[in-house]
Amino acid sequence: MVLIQLSNINKTYQNGESKLHVLRDISLEISDGEFVAVMGPSGSGKSTFINIVGMLDREFEGEYVFANDDTTALSRRDFAAFRNRNIGWVFQNFKLIQQMSVFDNVALPLVYAGRRRSDIKVAVQQTLDRLGIGDKGEKKPSELSGGQQQRVAIARALVAKPKFLLADEPTGGLDSHTAQEILDLFIALNHEGTTILMVTHDAHVAEQAQRTIRLADGQIVGGM
Ligand code: ADP
Ligand code: ADP
What is the ipTM of this complex? Predict the structure, then answer.
């Protein structure tokens, strides 16, 4: 089954008087259950591309169908709710809230979704256990190693059980051993059914995905 269908996506930034055409006529399908890497030089449009795929940005031309729903037809409010239901985001620098405990960071998506406190407790603990950090709930992020903090960020992305996990340089700041542990976790999650799209600069990381999409000057030049 096709999970994601992008058709003729174009994205332009307005820089004062001039226009920058950053994504050029991108068409792409991602099947349910795939693990896809995105590579390309700096400035090739990777962040712009995954912000659109990850539904952080809807200012683009073209069609984006997710699980048979046309995302461009959603209202602003429904768009955000749709994203939060379907997509988990993981960032290179974790983006954890430092003042909050690990448990409360991971609970956030469920709190926003209005889930019951008792359900939240169970779901957060299950997710922390799954990621091998079940004993870290009471800690603050700063008390953990980089690899553990990335596991917290992945737990937060997964706690609401999204179909699709998006990761922007998830191993970027980590030493190679820790990076491989995070990648092994992604591979295991993918085997359990999560579709994953991951931006990376590291060819050794990308080659462990099932497919690599290559961007150059805003166009897909390989891996379609
Ligand atoms: P990558 O992630 O591959 O480094 P980006 O998607 O960040 O590429 O950027 C692609 C191009 O778009 C670059 O030339 C960048 O300078 C430009 N760009 C990115 N974001 C903006 C923005 N908000 N406003 C204007 N130009 C931008
Ligand atoms: P990169 O360093 O790879 O360019 P960023 O850390 O700048 O990636 O984040 C990519 C985009 O996601 C940015 O446009 C940022 O505004 C947005 N973003 C970051 N964190 C969140 C979040 N928690 N929720 C929604 N949007 C976010």
Answer: 0.70
